[in-house]
Each structure stands twice: as C-alpha cells, then as structure tokens.
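Sequence, structure tokens passed on for absentees:
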Amino acid sequence: MGHDGLTSWGAELRLRDLSDAHAHPFRLVPTSEDMEEMAATLGLSSVKKLSFEGKMIPVGKRDWRLEGKLGATVVQPCVATLAPVTTRIDADVTRSYLAKFKEDTEEEEIEMPADDAEPLPVALHLSTVAQEELALAAPDYPRVEGAELAVTQFTESGKEAMTDEDTKPFASLKALRDKLQKDGE
C-alpha cells in the first residue's frame, strides 16, 4: 500500500503482516478494464464508476475489522423493457476477520460469530470484497421509471389458467391429491 492507502485493484493484503498497532487505510480505484471485467462477472451492462475506501482496524492481537464505503454507478437492463437503468450505489461495508473462527457444532453452546464475520484469510483481496458488496447492493430487478411487468398467462385450451396461488409450495401436492381423489371416486 502507498502512504495514502491507495491500493492497486487486484492486490492482496496480507493481514498477518500488518502492524496491529494502528488502523490501515485503503482506497481502491479500479481501471476501466477492471470495471469492464466486473460488469461481465456480475452480469451488469456496465460499471461506470467505482471506489472502495476505508480502513482495516486491528481488533485485539490477531483479528481485523474492515470498515469501508463502496460507491459505484452501475447500468443494468430494465427487467420489463431491457432499456438501460442507471443506479447509484453508496454502501457501508463492515466485515470481521477472526483468527479463531468457530464453526464447531459439537459444543453445547455454539458461539455464533457476527453475520459479517469470516475466518482470517492468509491474503485478503479488497477487490473481491468490493465485487461481492457490489453484487449485493445492485438492484435485483432494475426498472425504468414507470415500467410495469406484464402478467402473461399461458394455458392449454380447456384448462384453468395458473394463478399466483398455484405457484405456492404444496399447491402442486394439493392438485395431485385432488386429482387422485377424483380418479378414485
């Protein structure tokens, strides 16, 4: 890392080599090639801007907490019209990396680590964290203003159209039970 914390996009951070005496700032700014690659990986039309900055904070002698901010502008196709939808993302990112990560289920009392806790990696790729957070923050069903999804029904003639109720769990079992009862009469 440089003195201002600027870290190259794919660089790995070896947490065990960092001094636990103070926090270590980082700032990632990907190249346009990095953003194209990320868009392709995440199924986005494009990633226009992205910055990921924050700090690695020592917790005790061996654990670390990442606190950062992810800022990005992404373009995705609208789920209804396929027109491009641009979304601005500003996400707070917090993750804990624990040297003694408990996944031992045989104990009576299981110590559940925080939701954002992970085992301490040998090398941490901040770009991977940024990409995971971007995937979580990008809208699942982006829509152009005012676009509605059309409700389409496909039905064979003489059969009932399928409703939302039919797609619920057990609806197919109920239909099968009803059919068996009818056939048995």
The chain has one domain: 6-137. The two ends are 77 Å apart (CA to CA). The CA atoms of residues 79 and 141 lie 6 Å apart.
